[in-house]
Write a structure and sequence with these properties.
Layout (H helix, E strand, L loop, with lengths): L4 E6 L4 H10 L3 E7 L4 H9 L4 E2 L12 E4 L10 H9 L4 E4 L5 H8 L2
Parallel strand pairs: 1-2, 1-4, 2-3, 4-5
Helix pairs in contact: 3-4
Length: about 110
């Protein structure tokens, strides 16, 4: 098997679809969940036997290859763009799942 791609998933609402896909993949490995720390998120992290981080400073992003940000974007009054930017600034490839408003992309994502 080729080297595994270590994935951090931010958000456990729509992020649960990504968690299921990662679980089925032989190339992806779930490295952790980033959430607000709700009981729901903690249960999901326990189910997948990974840590549930509640702050972007907690996971060692040097050990993350890909981050899936399934958190509402500015367009839907969320902080997905901010989270995506913080992760991308650490050199991690980011897939932002939610629709991104141009101003948000310009402010947070486009370098």
């Amino acid at each position: 098997m080729a080297e595994e791609i270590r994935v951090l998933v931010a958000g456990t609402g729509f992020g649960s679809y990504y968690l299921k896909a990662i679980e089925k993949s032989d190339k992806l490995k779930l490295a952790g969940i980033l959430s607000k720390g709700s009981e729901h998120s903690r249960r999901i992290a326990e189910q997948y036997s990974v840590k549930c981080y509640t702050d972007i400073s907690e996971p060692d992003l040097k050990n993350i290859d890909l981050a899936v940000v399934a958190v509402r974007s500015l367009l839907s009054f969320g902080k997905g763009g901010v989270i995506a930017k913080q992760i991308a600034e650490k050199g991690v490839t980011v897939l932002e799942e939610q629709p991104v408003y141009f101003a948000e992309a310009e402010k947070y994502l486009i370098r």
